[in-house]
Amino acid sequence: MTAPRPSAQTVFRVTGLGKVYRTGDVEVHALRGVDFTASRGEFIVILGPSGSGKSTFLNIIGGLDRASAGEAWFEDHELTRLDEAGLTRYRRDHVGFIFQFYNLVPSLTARENVQLVTEISRQPMTPQEALALVDLEDRMDHFPAQLSGGEQQRVAIARAIAKRPDMLLCDEPTGALDSKTGIRVLEALTRVNAEIGATTLVITHNAAIQEIADRVVRFANGAIASEHRNARRKPASAISW
Amino acid sequence: MRALHIKLRRDIIRLWPQALAIAMVMAAGVATLILGAGAHDSLATTRARYYETNRFADVFTTATRVPEAVATEIAAIGGVASVDTRIQKIALADIADMAEPASVTLVSLPGYREPTLNRLVMRSGQAPDPEADDEAIASEGFARAHQLTAGSTIRVLINGRLRAVRITGTALSPEYIYALGPGDLMPDDRRFGVLWMPQRALAAAYDLDGAFNSVAVKLTQGMPPAGVIDRIDTLLADYGGLGAYSRKDQISHAFLDAELQQLKSMSRILPPIFLLVAAFLVNMTLSRLVALEREQIGLLKAMGYGPWAVARHYLEFVLLIAAAGIIIGFVAGAWLGTGITTLYAKFFSFPFLVFSRNPAVYAIAGGVTVVAALAGAIRAVAAVAWLPPAAAMAPPAPPRYRKILRGHIDLTGLVRQSSVISMRHLSHFPLRTASGILGMALAVAVLVGSLWSFGSIDHMIDVTFHRSDRQDATITFTAAKSEAAWYAASRLPGVLRSEPFRVAGVKIRHGHVERRLSLNGRLADAELSRVLDGDLRPVSLPETGIVLSQQLAEILGVNRGDDVEIELLEGDRRVITQPVSAIITGYIGLSAIMELDAMNRMLGEGDRVSGVHLAVDSAAWNQLFAAVKATPTASFITLQHVALKRFRETLAENILIMVTVYVVLAGIIAFGVVYNLARISLSEQAREMASLRVLGFTRGEVSGLLIGELLAIVLIAQPLGWLIGYGFAAAMVEGFTTELYRVPLVVNRDVYAKASLLVLAAAAFSAMVVRRRVDRLDMVQVLKTRE
Ligand SMILES: Nc1ncnc2c1ncn2[C@@H]1O[C@H](COP(=O)(O)OP(=O)(O)OP(=O)(O)O)[C@@H](O)[C@H]1O
Ligand SMILES: [Mg+2]
C-alpha cells in the first residue's frame, strides 16, 4: 500500500475504520467502517448519542487504542501499522489529549503536570507559557486537589498544548463543567487552535458547541451519520447553554 | 525526567508509613540472614584462628602411667608433627565462697618452656615458678567466678592430701574453651576450673616422676587421625591407655562444634524462610501498591511515555523502598550479628574475636530482596504498561461477577447489605483475597516458627530433670569402687535414698558408624535416675542387652533387636556384641544404658560402682557437703538444681538469644504485613468508600466495611498460619538438634495463641489506622481527583 498523496491541507485520513470489542461471547461493534479526513488547523466538533463510538474513534486516531479494521493515516504515518514504540512516538510528538475527567497526576502541581509533557517533547513551550494560555499562571503551584474542576481541565489543556501538538483531541472537555467555565475552556481551546494551528477534534454532547466549529461530524451507531461545514464560526464567547 | 522524579519523591513521602513498613519487612528478612550467617562465620573463624595461633592439638589420650621414653616413640609415628606429654588429674577443690566442693582439672606445665601444644593465653599475673609445688595458673572463668587473683589461695585435694595452692595468674586455653566438669551437662565456671601447675609438683604429688599420663599430639597438615590413633593405642596399651581420640571427641571441641553447628543450621533454616517470606510479602504488597497506579500508568502512556519509561518510574519507586529496606537490614544485621557474636565469644571465652563478613551473604540477602521487589513491581506494571492507554486508563474489568452462593439463596434481609459488599469484595478478587490470607498466614507462621522453641526447651528440661533424672545430687568417685562405697555414700548425712551407677568409656559401633561415649549402668528399677520410653513412661531395664537413646539409635542406624558392637576403652579393651533391647527418650547427649549387674558382668571387673545418685533432705545440704569434702574417695558432687540452673542459663545464653532475636524480627515482619495489607485495601477502595459516604453511609459503617474485610481475612488466615508455622517449626527442629541435645518438636497451644494474638494486635492497630483514615477521608477530594 502506498501512502495517499497528502494534500497540503490533509493531516489526517481514515478509511473503513472498524473496532470490535469482544467480551466473552459478546461482540460489540463500536465502529463500523468510518471514513474521515481532517485538514491542518481545522476545528471539528463531534456529536452523537451515547455509545455511538465517538470515544473509540478518538482513542484510535490518538494512538491510545488499536483498530480492528481499516486504515488511519497521520501525514505519512500509517497509524494502524505502527507498533507499540511507533504509537508512543506518535502520541509523544504529535498528539495532545484532553479527557472528560481531567486525569491529572494528583501528586504533581499544575506546573509539574505540564512539565511531565514538556520534558519529553521536541519543541515545547515552557509550562508557564502553556499555563498562561489558559490563564492559570497564578495557580501554577497548586495541586489538582486544590483546583476547581474547570481549573483542573484548563491545566489538562495546558498540558495537552504545551508540546505544540499537531492534533488536539478532546473527549467531552466541558462535560463536567458549568456553562461559564465551559466557555472559558472552549476559549482556551479555540485560542490554542488559532495560535499553534493544531487540528482540533472536540467530542461533546452539547449541541451549542457545534457553532464554534469549522465542521461538525455526527456519529451514530458506530459510523459517521452526517457531516456539515459551518459557513461562519462563532467565537466561543458568543455561545451559551 | 524531572517531573517523574518529583512524582516519585512525593509518592514516597505520601506513602511513607507503608513504604517504611515494607522496608522493615525486607530489613527483617535481610537482617536474619546476615546475623545468623555472620555470627556463625565470625565464631568459626575466631575458633580457627585461636586453634592455629595456640596450636590446639589434634589427637588426645590419657593413660595410667607412661614412661617418658614412649614420647619419642609417639613422635616417630608417621604423620605426627609434635607431641606434648603431660600429667592431667581431676581433683576436688574446697573454696571458701561455696559450700559444695568444686572440681578442678590439674594440668602440668613443662619446666622452663612453654607447652608446644595447647598454649595458654595469659590473661593476668604470671606463670608459676617451675620449682614451686604449690603454685598454679587458674582458668580465667573459674578465677572470675571466685574472684581469684594472683596471690589468692584455694585448697585442693591432691591425691588424697588437702593442699593450699597459690594462684599466680589466670589464663585461657584452646583445650578448655568449653570448660565442662565431669558429669556436667553444661559448663559451670563456679563448679569447675582448670589449674595449670608445674610438672615437677604434679609428678611428685601423683608419683609420676619420669612419666606422664596424658598426651596431646599435633598431626602434620591434612593427616587423618585414625591411623595415628591406632598406633598410639597400641603403644599405650601396656600403660593403661584409655584410647586416643581426635578433636571430634575432645569435650571442649565437641561441645563448641555442636554449638557452632547448631548456630549454622539455625542460620540455614529460619533466616532463608524469613527472607523468602519477606520477599513474598514485599512482592505482593508492592504489586498491589503499583496496581493502584493503573490509571496513572495509562495517563503517562497517553502523554507519550513509552512502556519502559513508565515501568522504570515504578521500578525506581520500588527500588527506593528496597534500598531502604536493604540498608536497614544490612546495618541491623551487622549490628545484631556483632552483638550476638560478642555475647557468644564471651560465653566461650575466646581471647579475641575475628569478625567475618561474608560478602556473599550480603549479596544473597540484598539480591533476593531486590529481585522480589522488582518482580512484584514488574508483575503489576507489566499488567498495565503494555496495554493500550485507552484500556489502562479505564479501571480493570472486574473478574466475572458472581453472586454469593450463586444466587440460590436470597441473602437480602438476612445479612446487612454492608456485609454483602464485604463478602463480594473478598469473592470478586479471589487472587487478591487469597494472597492477603496467605500473607497474614505467613505472618502468623513466622511467629509460630520462632516462638515454639521456648516451650519445647521447657518440655525438654521437664522431661530430663523432673521425670528422668530426679536425683538431687550425684557423687562421682575418682575411680570405680566396690559396692562398699555405695553403702558408705548411703550413710552420708541427709541422704534419703541412694542408687549406684557405673560408667565406662566405650566406643559403640554399628557398621561404619561409631561413637565414643560413656556407657551407663543402673539398677533395673532405679527410682531416681529413670529411663523413659517413647511415651515418657518409666521402664525397667532388661537384664540383657543395651538400651539406646533414640538419637543414638538413629545415628547408628539400629532398631530394637539389632546388635551393636561395644569396644571397651578401659581394662582389657574387649569388643563385645550386645543386642539393642530398647530405645528410649533422651534429649540430652547420646546415651547408652545397661542394667548395672549386666554391665558389671560384661566389664568383668566384679561388682563395682562409679558413683551414686542421691535423694537428699534439703535441710541437710551443708552437713552433706562437709562430709563429701572430707571423703577422699568422693571426687565430685553434681547438684541437680545447680545443673538445671546452668542448663537453663546456658541455653538462654546461646540458642534463646538467637531465637529471641528471630522472634522480634518475626514480629516486625508480621506487623509490617498486616499493616500494609490493611492500608492497601483502604487505598484500593478509597473511591468506593467516598461514594458510600456520599450516599449517606456513616463513617462507622464505611470503615466497618473495610475492617470487616480485614477481620475476615485475618480470621481465615489463622489456622493456615498455624499449619505453616508448624511446618517451619518442624524444619527448625533439625536445626536445633546436635549430638549434645535434641529439642523435641512440641508446639504448645500457647505458641499458636501468642502468634495469633500478636497478629490480631497488629490487625487491631491497622484497623485503628484505617478507621482514622476513613474519618479523615475527604469525600470531595477523593471524588474530585480521579486517582
Ligand atoms: N472496553 C470495552 N469493552 C467492550 N465494549 C466497549 C468497550 N469500550 C467501549 N465499548 C462499547 O463500544 C461502544 C462505543 O463506545 P464509546 O465509548 O466509543 O461510545 P461514546 O460514543 O464515546 O459514548 P459516550 O457519549 O457515552 O461517551 C459502546 O457500545 C460501548 O459499550
Ligand atoms: Mg465517550
Would you write up a description of this structure?
The complex is a heterodimer of chains A (241) and B (787). Chain A has 241 residues and is α/β, with parallel strands linked by helices. Chain A has a domain at 40-62 and 93-235: P-loop containing nucleotide triphosphate hydrolases (Rossmann fold). Chain A is built from 6 helices and 10 strands. In chain A, strand 9 (215-220) and strand 10 form a beta hairpin. The longest helix of chain A has 18 residues, at 179-196. Chain A is globular, with a radius of gyration of 17 Å. The termini of chain A are far apart. Chain B has 787 residues and is an alpha+beta fold. Among the domains of chain B are: 1-70 and 251-340 and 349-384, no CATH class; 91-206, no CATH class; 495-616, no CATH class. Chain B is 53% helix and 20% strand. Chain B contains 22 helices and 22 strands. In chain B, the strands form 4 sheets. Chain B has a 6-stranded mixed β-barrel. Chain B is elongated and about 100 Å long. Chain A binds chain B through residues 23, 59, 62, 64-66, 84-85, 88-89, 91-93, 95, 97, 99, 101-108, 112-113, 115-117, 119-121, 144-145, 149, 152, 159, 163, and chain B through 1-4, 6-7, 10-11, 14, 295-296, 299-307, 309, 386, 388-391, 393, 397, 781, 784-787. The complex binds adenosine-5'-triphosphate and magnesium ion. Residues 21, 23, 28, 30, 48, 50-56 of chain A line the site of adenosine-5'-triphosphate.
